[in-house]
UniProtKB/TrEMBL annotation:
Lineage: Bacteria, Bacillati, Bacillota, Bacilli, Bacillales
Any GO molecular function: peptide transmembrane transporter activity
Entry-linked Gene3D superfamilies: Dipeptide-binding Protein, Domain 1, Dipeptide-binding Protein, Domain 3, Periplasmic binding protein-like II
Domain Solute-binding protein family: 89-476
Record region (Disordered): 15-43
Gene Ontology cellular component terms for the protein in this record: ATP-binding cassette (ABC) transporter complex; periplasmic space
Xref: SUPFAM superfamilies: Periplasmic binding protein-like II (SSF53850)
Family from the record: Belongs to the bacterial solute-binding protein 5 family.
Listed NCBIfam families: Opp4A (NF045467)
UniProt protein name: Oligopeptide ABC transporter substrate-binding protein
Keywords per UniProt: Signal, Transport
GO biological process, one term: peptide transport
The species this protein was found in: Virgibacillus salarius
Length: 565
């Protein structure tokens, strides 16, 4: 699930095109024609912008936020990849299975790490054992926990993982605890160099130089220099398994979003995702193309309902337990106007925690839709006992005590974030719910959410769904990333049934029906208010060739090249 994130999720669903805007397939076709005529050219440096400073966890086994994932994409590859239909395809490794429980993986020979060591299956075993170790402090245990014997290994009851059998350096057998339709898609398929982390305790790995200052991978570019909070310089990895990259180097710079248009216009920046507030300005640039692809991301407002006890969520924070209160707060938000104002029409309201582009997405007619209705919000608040008892225009709680919503939104260099956060607080103020806004720095914000910090009550977030639609890692009762700390028996049963091969077999339509029932349950229970879904966009200087983007993301950077002047 590389793209799981909390970040500024980028752009938009619009059917109209300006003179400069190109649909993704048109852009790719034109670039293909240029390549056919001239062929890719080697050399040059590409400058790529990050919209905020990375947290600094530059190893895929440990990262937590999307900005770090952007960095990692240049230096590492996974064992499998996904096509534009989100179906798994062989990458570094191929696989076979007859029963969806027992898998045999075969690695390509000769794949090199940036340190010159050859990749073997032992590096993958090392990664799985690291994620399953009791001292592992990252969020990806869920991607290995279904391998047979992993829970026992994590508990210290076994020295090895029963479901892992190494045949030789290039072949390995993985056995899961049971057959599921999505065992492959949810399996952690990113190796970890044994050589680099030799002698480092698991508890110290995420803070080690191998993660923060000198990360390596098997990807097309290797790190040359990291200036924390400012830039990362990559150089081409000549021994890259798919062939030497065309570019000599790539420089990632942290650039204030308010400066992006000027940097693009002056040819100081070649490539960047961007906020919708810059869309029209970028669209008008003669030296820049905009490529677009369907998005798998959505924004939501979550309610803190409990805490994380280290192993599971416990619903022990009662302030927002009243479902009527949560529904009222949903009806109070004018999502359409909010999207138009802060995403310039490049998005649309979403009524479920699944983007429309995904094949399991339920129709609006199958879920509870919270269209803007402030009178309905007031009515629900009255019924739930949240009324103004002292005629000051502010509602008290059902016990007549002061009630204040504490709303948190992450802060980055983006100037629109404070305005859009204040707009949400105003919607609640307008129906009599006094609301206070807090905006922690982005990295601190994410840490507080993962730790179920008591300062986070109602919070703004965003997720990108994985290639497999299973949302268990985000909304299962025992999952760290279930930030509302929502525990619901029906929720867990539906999520379990949807991946149980004894329930759904290979029937994708039956699986979809279960996920539709799950979306209906979520929309009725309202542990979060789904706000908007967005399209993915990228600004690319016209001198840059070979860049493609579809629903699975960008193509590999080793295929990018710079057109000679």
């Amino acid at each position: 699930m590389l793209l799981l994130m909390l970040t500024m999720l980028l752009v938009a669903c619009s059917e109209e095109e300006g003179d400069k805007e190109k649909e993704n397939n048109e852009t790719q076709s034109e670039e293909g024609d240029k390549e056919e005529a001239t062929g890719p050219v080697d050399g040059g440096t590409l400058v790529y912008a990050l919209d905020s400073a990375p947290e600094g966890l530059f190893n895929i086994n440990f990262y937590g936020i999307a900005v770090d994932a952007e960095v990692i994409d240049f230096l590492d590859d996974g064992l499998i990849t996904y096509d534009e239909e989100l179906k798994p395809q062989p990458n570094v490794a191929d696989w076979k299975t007859e029963d969806n429980q027992h898998y045999t993986f075969t690695f390509q020979k000769g794949v090199k790490w940036h340190n010159g060591e050859e990749l073997t299956v032992h590096d993958w075993v090392f990664a799985i054992e690291t994620l399953a170790h009791p001292d592992y402090d990252g969020p990806r245990y869920t991607n290995v926990q279904t391998i047979k014997g992993v829970p026992e290994f994590k508990a210290g009851e076994a020295d090895e993982i029963e479901g892992i059998h190494v045949v030789n350096d290039y072949e390995i057998e993985i056995t899961f605890d049971k057959a599921r339709v999505n065992n492959l898609e949810n399996l952690w398929t990113y190796p970890l160099s044994r050589k680099e982390f030799e002698g480092i305790p698991v508890a110290e790995m995420s803070e080690s130089p191998q993660v923060r200052q000198k990360p390596i991978g098997i990807g097309p570019f290797k790190v040359k220099e990291i200036i924390p909070g400012e830039s990362i310089q990559f150089e081409a990895f000549d021994d890259y398994w798919q062939g030497k990259p065309h570019l000599d180097s790539i420089v990632l710079k942290v650039i204030d979003p308010s400066l992006v248009v000027g940097e693009l216009e002056n040819n100081q920046l070649d490539m960047t995702a961007f906020h919708p507030s810059n869309f029209e300005s970028i669209q008008a640039l003669d030296n820049t193309d905009v490529i677009r692809a369907p998005g798998l991301s959505y924004y939501y407002v979550g309610f803190r309902l409990g805490t994380w006890d280290g192993e599971k969520n416990v619903m022990d924070y009662e302030k927002y337990h009243d479902k009527q209160l949560r529904k009222a707060m949903a009806y109070a938000i004018d999502r359409e106007s909010w999207i138009n104002e802060f995403f310039f029409g490049l998005g649309q309201p979403v009524n479920r925690p699944i983007p429309t582009a995904h094949w399991i997405s339920a129709d609006d007619s199958d879920v509870t839709v919270y269209n803007y209705d402030p009178e309905k919000a007031k009515e629900l608040l009255d019924e739930a006992g949240y009324v103004d008892v002292n005629d000051d225009g502010i509602r008290e709680d059902p016990n007549g005590e002061e009630f204040k919503v504490k709303f948190s939104h992450y802060a980055t260099q983006n100037p629109t974030f404070e305005a859009r956060a204040k707009a949400i607080t105003q919607y609640w103020n307008d129906v009599g719910l006094a609301t206070k806004l807090e905006m922690p720095e982005a990295n601190l914000y994410y840490e507080q959410l993962e730790e179920a910090d008591e300062s986070m009550e109602v919070f703004f977030g965003g997720w990108s769904t994985g290639t497999d639609p299973d949302p268990t890692a985000l909304w299962g009762s025992d999952q760290l990333w279930n930030y509302p700390r929502w525990v619901n028996e029906k929720n867990d049963q539906l999520l379990a049934d949807a991946i149980d091969i004894n329930v759904v077999g290979q029937d994708q339509e039956k699986r979809k029906q279960i996920y539709m029932e799950w979306q209906k349950n979520v929309s009725e229970e309202v542990p979060m208010i789904t706000i908007a879904e967005l399209e993915e966009v990228m600004a690319v200087n016209t001198r840059v060739q070979g860049v493609e983007m579809d629903v699975s993301g960008l193509n590999s950077s080793h295929e990018w090249w710079i057109k000679p002047n």
